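User: Here's a chain of 290 residues. Predict its fold as tokens.
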Amino acid sequence: MRVIGIYAKRTNPDAITVAGQLCRYLIGRGVAVLVETRLAEDLRGRDAAENLPAADAASLPGQVDAIVVLGGDGTLISVARDVGALAVPILGVNLGSLGFLTEITLEELYPQLERVLAGDFTVSERIMLQAQIVRDRLPLAQYHVLNDVVINKGALARIIDMEVWVNDDYLTTFKADGLIVSSPTGSTAYNLAAGGPIVYPGLHCLLITPICPHTLTNRPIIVSDNAVIQIRMAFDSERVFCTADGQVGMALQGRDVVEIRKAEMCTHLIKSASKNYFEVLRAKLRWGER
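Assistant: Prediction complete.
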């Protein structure tokens, strides 16, 4: 590892402080550091952080051997979209309140980083989704997603109708507040809150979960990750939105089609050397506690 990229949740003062400390540590080890541009601005005036090389969020991944993300799952998810098809390993350090993806604690950061610098680490390969919005048979927008694609009604909208097709086979028309299509990684996000199953992240599948369905027998369904899911809007004037990972998206119109499939790229998360996925679940969901 010759160059390490650093992102941080800029609204978290602790993340900025840790970023400065991490830069000094890496520079002291003779490792080059490349900092996300806005983070570099936050670090100006701090010891050993005045003249750090910086790059914008989109171009940084192409210039580094590994990335450290300081913050929470939301920060890591945004970085995963920037990494794209480059397959740069990401070390997520949890400075938030939950953190299924940023499973490394602050106390584990430097011991884990020593292993990364020595090349002694393993990665968890997470499939991503590609979502395309089609209007009048023309592609309108496209997103790459780590967790989920969510179609949701506005606060004052009525229940919406969504025709769902899987590989050109009609599934059903969901009458619901919305619909979630998630990757296994996203199964512990909105999908879990909506009553969907927890899926081991190494499995290759997609999850379709209705949000508050009008028909109580509508239940989450798991399909192959080779499937192409088409969601056809069947409404006229409702306020409906499509969001990708809860961070980007757009308003939908009646007869729009949201087409979702597995993306050609994956996210590579550096695994903790001290805990496995089930330990993370037990800790985050407080299983076994009374």
